[in-house]
């Protein structure tokens, strides 16, 4: 139990869930925490090495079954995301994109040959995947995508470009979404195919311990079997996003917990006006409000995870979790920053890194506004955006 677990929410987890959480926490303590400030500062992360280590622990495609995947519960996967993101949101993004976006798309919509070809290698981290939906001119509104897929004999030709694609510069395969004559289709595209070029996006001020890229597709010729046969229409990529958003609901709590724990330790030892910061009523009010929000966020994540395990989780419910938990995690990170004063902006402490990371987490996988619109549509029966 951590100091922020006032309500003993740990008691709502079973032994296996607690066990998985401790294993991931240890891995993050050993392999991420000692290096992450440096990765962040340099904007470089040993993604391939980390992927293989995460693969050895069964964290890649962890909640999928077969093909070398661990077949864990959604709650166990969520707890793993929380612990990874307590290290860094970028590190959690590597795992989320690999498992919930790229592997899930192939697992759910791919042919048996595609699954055999990619999933076992992706589960061990030998192969890295990415997921290309966003384009330079189409983010929140993927239905307007400009990337085109057209048939040429038995082959497909893909033309267009994808932007802001996590893992792309280190990936072996991209799941690319493109508009064909019959609607949106998905393709498993080996990134060494002729006509594909990948450029790393630099100068990010957020998620610097994650590699992000732009993928240009210049009449890329693909065999017929590159098409994901089960994916027809925009609901296919959106279902992958629902998977990944569930992980984010949990992950954001990891960043927030790390900020809170760092702040509690700092406020207990930093003295001003002859007493520790933690002894001031204004500081305690901040700490209490943040701990309360964290606990509520955890209960929400656990409820959504249990719904997912019962096969009853609906997309607008995930929107509730993503909207609330990322927004509150960011508010916690910013508030913790105030308690650390000038040290709050220093890279010697993790707070500003988490706060900056959460700006990306707030935007990707559906911005807060888009989740408000999804919830608003459910409440009113009126779509304000489609
Ligand atoms: C670090 C990082 C990694 C990413 N990784 C991936 C990835 O792996 N794969 C991928 O496909 N994408 C990825 N993305 C892209 C991400 O999903 C998009 O940035 C996101 O969907 C928003 O799109 P946009 O940036 O084009 O913003 P826009 O869609 O241009 O939106 C700009 C602003 O307008 C608001 N807005 C838009 N439409 C409406 C509306 N109807 N009503 C009210 N407000 C509205 C938005 O909420 C936002 O505040 C990543 C982004 C980042 C920053």
Low-confidence stretches: none
Radius of gyration: 21 Å
Structural class based on helices, strands and sheet pairing: alpha+beta
The pLDDT mean sits at 97
Order of helices and strands: HHHHHHEEEEEEEEHEEHHHH
Give the overall shape, derived from the CA principal axes: globular
Largest sheet: 4 strands, mixed
The count of helical stretches stands at 11
Strand order of the largest sheet: 1-4-5-8
Strand content: 15-25%
Let me know the number of strands.
10
Distance between the termini: 44 Å
Bound molecules: flavin-adenine dinucleotide
- What is the percent of helical residues? 40-55%
Write the layout of secondary structure elements.
Blueprint: H1 15-32, H2 36-42, H3 47-56, H4 74-87, H5 89-109, H6 112-124, E1 129-132, E2 148-152, E3 155-166, E4 173-180, E5 183-190, E6 196-200, E7 212-222, E8 227-232, H7 235-269, E9 271-272, E10 275-276, H8 281-309, H9 315-339, H10 351-363, H11 368-380
Parallel strand pairs: 1-4
Antiparallel strand pairs: 2-3, 3-7, 4-5, 5-8, 6-7, 9-10
Helix pairs in contact: 1-4, 4-5, 4-7, 5-6, 5-7, 7-8, 7-9, 7-10, 8-9, 9-10, 9-11
């Amino acid at each position: 139990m951590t100091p922020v677990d006032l309500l003993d929410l740990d008691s709502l987890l079973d032994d296996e869930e607690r066990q998985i959480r401790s294993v991931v926490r240890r891995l993050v303590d050993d392999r991420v925490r000692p290096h992450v400030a440096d990765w962040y500062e340099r904007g470089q992360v040993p993604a391939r090495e980390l992927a293989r280590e995460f693969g050895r622990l069964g964290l890649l495609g962890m909640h999928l079954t077969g093909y070398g995947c661990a077949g864990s519960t959604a709650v166990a996967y969520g707890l793993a995301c929380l612990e990874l993101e307590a290290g860094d949101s970028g590190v959690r993004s590597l795992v989320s994109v690999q498992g919930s976006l790229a592997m899930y798309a192939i697992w759910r919509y791919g042919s048996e040959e595609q699954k055999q070809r990619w999933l076992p290698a992706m589960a061990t981290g030998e192969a890295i995947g990415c997921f290309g939906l966003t384009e330079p001119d189409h983010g929140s509104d993927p239905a307007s995508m400009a990337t085109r897929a057209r048939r040429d004999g038995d082959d497909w030709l893909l033309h267009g470009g994808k932007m802001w694609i996590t893992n792309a510069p280190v990936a072996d395969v991209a799941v690319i979404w493109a508009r064909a004559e019959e609607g949106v289709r998905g393709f498993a595209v080996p990134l060494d195919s002729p006509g594909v070029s990948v450029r790393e996006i630099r100068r990010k001020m957020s998620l610097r311990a994650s590699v992000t890229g732009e993928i240009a597709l210049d009449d890329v010729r693909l065999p017929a079997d590159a098409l994901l046969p089960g994916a027809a229409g925009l609901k296919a990529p959106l279902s992958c996003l629902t998977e990944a958003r569930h992980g984010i609901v949990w992950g954001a709590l990891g960043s927030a917990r790390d900020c809170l724990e760092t702040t509690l330790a700092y406020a207990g030892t930093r003295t001003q006006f002859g007493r520790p910061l933690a002894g001031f009523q204004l500081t305690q009010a901040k700490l209490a409000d943040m701990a309360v929000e964290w606990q509520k966020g955890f209960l929400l994540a656990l409820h959504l995870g249990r719904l997912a395990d019962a096969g009853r989780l609906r997309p607008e419910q995930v929107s509730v979790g993503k909207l609330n938990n990322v927004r509150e995690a960011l508010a916690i990170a910013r508030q913790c920053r105030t308690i650390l004063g000038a040290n709050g902006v220093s890279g010697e402490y993790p707070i500003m890194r988490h706060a900056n990371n959460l700006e990306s987490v707030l935007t990707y996988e559906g911005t807060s506004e888009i989740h408000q619109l999804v919830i608003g549509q459910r409440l009113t029966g009126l779509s304000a955006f489609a």
